[in-house]
Amino acid sequence: MPISLERAQQLIARAVVSGTSQSVSIAAVVVDEAGNIKASAMMDGTGFMSFDAALRKARTSANMGVSTKDVSIMTSKDPLMQAALHVEPGLLLLPGGGPIKEGDTVIGALGIAGGHYSQDQALLDYALSEK
Asked: Is the pLDDT of residue 131 over 70?
């Protein structure tokens, strides 16, 4: 079952509220399990590259089934895998992307970009912390 529009919008709203409370202008994108955009938002003052980065983080996470933080850690120990993934223009290994699961099944992913990647990851963790 793919992620519902209602759940996608709720996750986007949580990310935006958290970004606002921390004075970080972000782009947030939810994709379905196939990487198609389900919902998105760009806060005022967000740079144009942030939307693309959030989308790429979400697609990376949906495809890999784990957070981009975890992919980054995995690839840091495997230079060949890291090189292969870095040349794929649709992927982004920076923290800030995470899978949305129903049980053990990936039904989508959320990507956040606009702050330092550590801020993006913290906002992601908050947004995904409540279903």
From this structure: no
